[in-house]
Amino acid sequence: MKNFLKISLLLMSVFGFAQEQKSYNFSLEEAVNFAIDSNYTAINSKREVLAALKQKWETTATGLPQINAGVDYRNNLKQPVSLIPAEFTGGEPGTFEPVIFGVPQTMTATATLNQLLFDGSYIVALQASKTFLEYSKNLEEKTTSIVRKEVINAYGSVLLSQENIKILESNKETLAKNLNETSEIFKNGLAEEEDVEQLQITLSNIETQLNNSKRVLDLSQQLFNITLGIDLDANVILTESLDNLIIQNIDLQLLAEELSLENNVDYKIANNFTEQRRLELKLEKFKALPTLSAFINYGTQANSNTFTFLDSDQRWFQSSIAGVSLQVPIFSSLGRTAKTQRAEIAFDQSKTEFDEAIQRIKLEANSAKNNYEFAIEKYENSKNNLNLAERIERKNQIKFFEGLSSSFDLRQAQLQLYSAQQEYLQAILDVIVQKAELERILNTTN
Q1: What is the DSSP string of 71-127?
Q2: What mean pLDDT is predicted for residues 43-68?
Q3: Range of lowest pLDDT (266-270, 303-307, 365-369)
Q4: In order of start, what are the domains of the chain with their CATH numbers?
Q5: pTM (2 decimals)?
Q6: Quick check: 248 and 254 in contact, CB under 8 A?
């Protein structure tokens, strides 16, 4: 028994360890596709569409046949007493005789079929439910585009953090080597103590930045996991490189892409809102129309002194009725007129907001194109600046060790190089981020 428990605990620990060590491998496209199905916001967005479908059928069902049934059992614990003239039973005229009519227990079963024949509000409700479904689908599309953009940003941030750590580690290694050589030269009396101290300051700053970059990488990876909709501590391996990513994201043809308003999801949502206001106006107008409905009722009733309603010989008496109901609104003291006018004002406001939304979307598209173009230019410039900064730093290293320049000049060249490295990495991320935003507005991705 003890051995069995030990084996069970061992298997459970191995299984738990395997669960904890679950890992993922993602290219950028794979990460986007994964997040569209598993991102928390995307999941709820799909549920909103499903709820809209159910609501559409709920509205449709109100105009279809409705059947209701009921059973009513009554037991008169104290039956009501009625008075009849006593002369009916041979008594003295002018007096009354108390009598009890009926039996103490009754049971009634009924079933009613109702059918709406005409209702203007129902017609508008059907149209509104269709519009709401379209609105929910457009919201899901917008959520998907936002999730795609967030995944691209988070993916690029992780790669940038990884590359930044590599650069800082390389800088640290170079600085440590320079410091060691300078310290030996100083010991031999061929360098000043300030030269050593300058390098120590620079090395200390690089070490601090490196430690912080490692913490930033952890946070970037956790943010990426949340964006994907997976466990915060899950192990995720990114199969893309930053160099490949920048090549994929420089697309000058995208700048020539024309904005199609009909494809823009914000345009679709604004159009849904305007359509909703139009239907609200239509609803208020249709409320002045009559409502026509029909019904068929069938019932059966039994009476007894005791509870014998389940006996086979119990007598039941049938009844049935059919009818039509017409409701005609005649006068509301101009209340309906005021509601209709208010709905018309709201519709006019929505049309104005729709026109404004169109102009804003056009502005967003132009701004996104400008930002993307600037990001590409900035990347090219930072790439050239990085090459120049590397050359300047190498020259100053040679001059410093040959005694042709001071440690201050070397430090300035190193700081310039480190700044160029950071600007280069940030320029790469900017290109990736701005392209994702432009694609979202132009809706050029599936």
Answers
A1: EEEEE-SS---EEEEGGGGT--TT-EEEE--S-SEEEEEEEEEEEEEE-HHHHHHHH
A2: 91
A3: 303-307
A4: 24-65+117-291+335-442 (1.20.1600.10)
A5: 0.81
A6: no
